[in-house]
Specification:
The protein is mainly α. The chain has helices at 3-16, 24-34, 39-52, 59-62, 72-92. Helix 1 (3-16) packs parallel to helix 3 (39-52). The relative contact order is 0.11.
Length: 103
């Protein structure tokens, strides 16, 4: 999140909770902890919080873990290829082929 995006979020919070003061020091601490979060995710959390709570949110309520990319799809594709190769190998090997039912 950029500092400009963070300022927009602070405006939203100040507008929703005008009776609470958000000091510069507090805003600096918030930004330090929230800067690695996605702007849209934090914005959604603020909007949801405003709808249900008369109290200003905390950093913990707004923090959203950064999304880590996974390689699960690539891993599954590799397993499928390995499985197909293994099946073909077993079909070609007479020792691993099942015996016919009449034999």
């Amino acid at each position: 999140m950029t500092s400009g995006e963070f300022r927009e979020l602070v405006k939203m919070i100040k507008g929703a909770y005008p009776h609470r003061l958000l000091s510069r020091e507090t805003a600096i601490i918030w930004f330090r902890h929230l800067k690695d979060c996605e702007y849209d995710g934090v914005k959604r959390r603020i909007q949801a919080h405003i709808r249900v709570s008369p109290y200003m949110p905390t950093i913990a309520e707004l923090y959203e873990q950064p999304v880590k990319e996974t390689t699960i799809l690539e891993t599954m594709e590799a397993w499928e290829k390995e499985g197909a190769i293994r099946i073909e190998d077993e079909r070609g090997n007479e020792w691993t082929r099942p015996a016919p039912p009449w034999g």
